[in-house]
Design goal:
The chain is an alpha/beta fold. The chain is built from seven helices and six strands; from the N terminus they run ββββαααβαααβα. The strands form two sheets. Strands 3-2-1-4 form a four-stranded mixed beta sheet. The chain has a two-stranded parallel sheet with strand order 5-6. α4 packs across α6. It is globular, with a radius of gyration of 16 Å. The mean pLDDT is 86.
Length: 193
């Protein structure tokens, strides 16, 4: 019988290093790459042993999908993994669902455009810019990083933010370069794009 929650790490080529992931019987509930994101991680069984990760179907599916993505081999619109949305609020879930369903690999959308297209925001909030700022907060606090592509949401005048920590913007830049949204620089260390 599978444990109710498993927690495991996934090695990545990201400037931020490894990702920490948690999954329930319903799907991935949490994925983060910043060390300070661990306070949101659900309690559960830690799988540090690679053989144990390989034996757990949930961990194996996430690990394989992320490995293909980081190698430049997964270019589908979404990761096609089950998601457990129980750590998200109704509005956050609505915005993240819309983002995942409509902004595919290799595309970006601005905070304001996502707020406008996703609906659910008061028209006055949209006009004043409050809706765009709220979308920015939702992207910064998503409990399921990368698998739900908050990195594809950018500011109208540049990259925008990407959580906290010194490696946040370099990680966002790396992901957008991998997806072909930003041209690689001379120091690009990822797969051919």
């Amino acid at each position: 019988m599978e444990p109710p929650v498993i927690r495991f790490t996934v090695d990545t080529p990201l400037p931020s290093g490894r990702m920490r992931v948690a999954a329930t019987a319903h799907g991935v509930i949490w994925a983060a790459f910043h060390e300070n994101d661990t306070e949101q991680m659900p309690e559960g069984l830690d799988l540090a042993d690679p053989a144990a990760v390989d034996a757990d179907r949930r961990a194996r599916a996430v690990t394989q999908r992320l490995a293909a993505y980081f190698a430049g081999q997964w270019r589908k619109p979404s990761f096609e993994l089950p998601i457990d949305w129980s750590l998200t609020s109704n509005l956050q879930r609505k915005v993240l669902h819309y983002l995942d369903a409509t902004v595919p690999f290799g595309a970006t959308i601005t905070y304001g455009a996502l707020a406008e297209r996703c609906a659910g925001f008061d028209p006055e909030m949209a006009r004043s810019g409050q809706a765009a700022r709220l979308v920015g907060t939702i992207m910064a606090t998503t409990p399921i990083a990368i698998l739900i592509p908050a990195h594809r949401v950018v500011a109208a005048d540049g990259l925008g933010g990407f959580g906290s920590g010194p490696d946040a913007l370099p990680t966002k830049r790396w992901l957008l370069t991998l997806e072909g949204c930003i041209p690689p620089t001379l120091d690009w260390d990822g797969p051919e794009v």
